[in-house]
């Protein structure tokens, strides 16, 4: 089962925003801020990729009648690894914590952009809806 197109758009927007933020940081900010932006946005991109793969597998298992499946069992370990990575980054890397938070929060903006795009996009006309009854 493939991911819905909106999930792929969110992921691509996430990658694009991360690249833009890091590149702007490289030109305008100090090393610790750039490292924070890079690590934060990198973790959120990896997290979104893994989450998308798990959700697709999870929904495919559910659609085929398989129970919770292996994907749901991987959600907790994924979160533990993510929290560990965040802790290691914040505690041991010479990064700016606020820049890390900004980089990590890019996924929220990606979701808002995709949701707004989807809401404002004109819905496709159904050719059958224009036919008169009778």
Provide a quick synopsis of the model.
The protein has 134 residues and is mainly alpha-helical.
Q: Rg from C-alpha positions? A: 19 Å
Major pleated sheet: none
Q: How many beta strands in the DSSP annotation?
A: 0
- Count of folded domains: 1
Order of helices and strands: HHHHH
> What fraction strand?
under 5%
**How much helix is in the residues?**
over 70%
User: Separation of termini?
Assistant: 39 Å
Q: State the low-pLDDT regions, or none.
A: none
Shape: flat
Find the structural class using helix and strand composition: mainly alpha
Number of helices: 5
How would you portray this structure in words?
By secondary structure, the chain is an all-alpha fold. It has one domain. The chain is built from five helices and no strands. It has helices at 5-28, 31-63, 69-92, 97-104, 106-120. α2 (31-63) runs parallel beside α4. The longest helix has 33 residues, at 31-63. It is flat. The relative contact order is 0.17. The model has no long low-confidence stretch (mean pLDDT 87).
């Amino acid at each position: 089962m493939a991911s819905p197109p909106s999930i792929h758009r969110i992921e691509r927007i996430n990658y694009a925003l991360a690249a833009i933020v890091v590149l702007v940081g490289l030109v305008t900010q100090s090393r610790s801020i750039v490292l924070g932006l890079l690590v934060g946005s990198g973790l959120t991109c990896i997290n979104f990729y893994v989450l998308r793969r798990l959700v697709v597998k999870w929904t495919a298992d559910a659609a085929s009648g398989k129970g919770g499946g292996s994907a749901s069992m991987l959600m907790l370990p994924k979160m533990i690894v993510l929290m560990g990575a965040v802790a290691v980054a914040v505690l041991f890397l010479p990064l700016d914590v606020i820049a890390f938070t900004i980089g990590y929060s890019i996924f929220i903006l990606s979701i808002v952009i995709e949701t707004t795009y989807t809401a404002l996009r004109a819905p496709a006309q159904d050719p059958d809806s224009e036919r008169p009854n009778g």
